Amino acid sequence: MRIGMMVDSYKPYISGITNYVEVNKKHLEKIGHEVFVFTFGDIDYKDDEKNVVRSPGVPLADSGFYLSLRYSRDARKLLEKMDVVHVHHPFLSGRLALRYCRPKQIPIVFTNHTRYDLYAQAYLPLMPDLVSIGLLQTYMPSFCKAMDLVITPSAGMEEVLRELNVEEPIEIVPNGVDLKNFKSAKSLARKKFGYKKMIFC
What we know:
Layout: E1 2-6, H1 16-30, E2 34-40, E3 52-55, E4 58-59, E5 66-67, H2 73-79, E6 84-87, H3 92-100, E7 108-111, H4 116-123, H5 129-145, E8 149-152, H6 155-163, E9 170-172
Parallel strand pairs: 1-2, 1-6, 2-3, 6-7, 7-8, 8-9
Antiparallel strand pairs: 4-5
Helix pairs in contact: 4-5
């Protein structure tokens, strides 16, 4: 299957979504799928993995995000060959999924990773909470209704979407963890030092 991961930002920008997409891409490829990441950024950036498709955008200060309202022609042509697309941001990437994929009847999956209500408080401090919540309560229900599948990583995030008036069915799929990062280190040679039991300090 050809899977398109659509994100507003990707490596070298470090975030939970970047990590999620990288890990899922790697494991989907291991079981035989062909996975592409569609994003914005420096088109001359040398990726350390294959199938990262960057479209040019305007950098937003040093945030790691690039602003663009469209993909390049090559990115659009490739995107239209996907069997399914998985959107990880509902605004830029989400709108582009609807613009490019919906007319081609490509299924669109959306995972809501982010508390956008808290994002608004942090990055738009001059905007009153009532305004930001009102905008989200208008936008998120209509966006989620346009998706073929809506996913959240936790019951708590599902509750947040419900509070934003999202009525569509929501599947809870916890984020995976790459266990190789947690291989146990070599245990201390306790017997060598005369200790038979585990000692906690």
